[in-house]
Amino acid sequence: MRKENSTNAMNEQFLFGICELNSAVSMISGRWKSQIVYSVSEGNNRFHLLKKELPNISEQVLGRQLKELETHKIIVKKEIPGTVPAGIEYVLTNKGEDLIPILKNLCEWGKVYAEGKKISAFNFI
What we know:
This protein is mainly α. The protein has helices at 7-18, 20-28, 33-41, 47-53, 59-71, 94-113; strands at 75-80, 87-92. Strand 1 and strand 2 form a beta hairpin. Residues 19-118 form the HTH hxlR-type domain.
């Protein structure tokens, strides 16, 4: 957790103030978030399905990333009626749905400009 009056926090606030792109990138930054969002859009909308889809992510990191995506209102948690114990699924909000074509475009851009970096782990298209 960063101190509010630290140089990093002040720089972040400055950047967020001059361009909304900085805020947007901050919401989806992190190693796993974009893949989680895309996986949820493809129907991998429960914790165990996401873990199966992304086997290299730890449960702790997956939980934290899901919570951050919830905080930014990109996904919401919904209880599945009639399940015992109560089942939870993740659903994209309108904000999350609007993000999918952007992620697909970024994936295409990465395929062209990734300069030899292996990007096959991203299965957006």
